[in-house]
């Protein structure tokens, strides 16, 4: 009869991770879509590289920051698979 209620913080976390997943998942694969990112001063970056997308995102939640750092580390160590590893982490967190 009793339902678990999520706290506001948990819902914000879930929304932020789902938003990140939606941004990067369409750039995955051989027909991945390019993303156009504009920073605060108006510089435009067009890419479909998951590491670049996650590096340029401005995230607030600590877990989302860890996700972006994971993608950066994956890019530095292996050089590929950043989008897949980010989506994998989002799915299991």
TrEMBL record:
Alphabetical keyword list: Acetylation, ATP-binding, Chaperone, Cytoplasm, Nucleotide-binding
Predominant place of localization: cytoplasm
Top-level division of the source organism's lineage: Eukaryota
Species: Macaca nemestrina (Pig-tailed macaque)
Record-level GO cellular component terms: cytoplasm
PROSITE patterns: TCP1_1 (PS00750), TCP1_2 (PS00751), TCP1_3 (PS00995)
Name by which UniProt lists this protein: T-complex protein 1 subunit alpha
Localisation per UniProt entry: Cytoplasm
Pfam (any one): Cpn60_TCP1
Molecular function via GO: ATP binding; ATP hydrolysis activity; ATP-dependent protein folding chaperone; unfolded protein binding
Annotated family: Belongs to the TCP-1 chaperonin family.
């Amino acid at each position: 009869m009793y339902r678990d209620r999520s706290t506001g913080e948990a819902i914000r976390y879930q929304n932020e991770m789902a938003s990140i997943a939606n941004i990067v998942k369409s750039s995955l694969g051989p027909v991945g879509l390019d993303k156009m990112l504009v920073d605060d001063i108006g510089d435009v970056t067009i890419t479909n590289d998951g590491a670049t997308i996650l590096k340029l995102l401005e995230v607030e939640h600590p877990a989302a920051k860890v996700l972006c750092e994971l993608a950066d580390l994956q890019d530095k160590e292996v050089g590929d698979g950043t989008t897949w590893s980010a989506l994998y982490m989002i799915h299991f967190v």
